[in-house]
Amino acid sequence: MSNFLLLAKQKGMAELVTTVCATGGGAFKFENEFRQQVNMKLAKFDELDTLIKGILFAEVQNPTECYFYENARDIMKSEKRAFDFSKPYPFILVNVGSGVSILAVYGPDNFKRVSGTSLGGGTFLGLCCLLTGCNSFEEAIQLATKGDNRKVDKLVRDIYGGDYDRFGLTGDLVASSFGQMHIKDKRSSVSREDLANATLVTITNNIGSIARMCALNEKMDKVVFVGNFLRVNPISMKLLAYAMEFWSNGTLKALFLEHEGYFGALGCLLQFNGEIAAALNETAETTTTSSPSSSSSSQSKAEPTNTSQAAETVSNAMNSTTTTPTSNNVNNSDS
Hints:
Blueprint: H1 2-10, H2 13-16, E1 19-23, H3 26-29, H4 31-38, E2 41-45, H5 47-61, E3 66-70, E4 79-82, E5 91-96, E6 100-107, E7 110-117, H6 121-132, H7 137-146, E8 154-155, H8 156-160, E9 174-176, H9 184-189, H10 192-218, E10 223-226, H11 234-247, E11 254-257, H12 263-290, H13 296-318, E12 323-325
Parallel strand pairs: 1-2, 1-12, 5-10, 10-11
Antiparallel strand pairs: 3-4, 3-11, 5-6, 6-7, 8-9
Helix pairs in contact: 5-12, 6-10, 7-10, 10-11, 12-13
């Protein structure tokens, strides 16, 4: 957020924009900073309302917005394929930010939070910083892309010597995350990349497992994953696709969206514009009801007053004729 405020000062945004649409925890946490440092007001909207509105709008405008990974169990060979999301309802929405919120969505304004977990993107980054000494999310993902979790985790074959045929568990499945790190020789041989990859596999497996159970409980067959954790992060999406494929035995696919990272901001703008439209409609109705009808001259005299009323109403709704949307997903609902 400090970077945005610095940019606003450097580019003179405060001279052009007086209201910023905002969502997420940062809309409340940084409200005073916006007012004091750049003289901007925040038009705050609920992060989940705006998220869903943004997703549905993007899907309508872009028929190829939604996709899944084919051959999800082979991460190296899995490929993106378009998914027809034109009839979305009902579906499970998994919002992966610092933590994870899971929603059951029945319609554009009909949804409920059914579960969540505190183990999300913030957990991944925090553990990676502790284990590898990295300093940013981008660095953590780069490390994870090059690592091998099998050098860190205890696999089924490490326990059974191979597959566990009775329950259909192949030998290369994770039986215990970080399960080999109690062995000194194993600890000394793993790399930073291996530790980062194991951390990512741990987080995504957990999210996939919970999402699958929510889909079963709600009797839904579509599970959509969103959140800033997934923005420009194909390895995490492929791992989630694998987890969903495994936990559901192929009956559920993990669905993703092309414009990840922008839905909150888009939903903010849509909701803000909706409030403006409502204010204009209300003013127009008031104007029609209150306009004198005794003569054409009296109607003409009433017009300046009504125009002034309309301008005042819109001004109150907007606080400015110029706005810019933003969304802060650092503090997405955790659990």
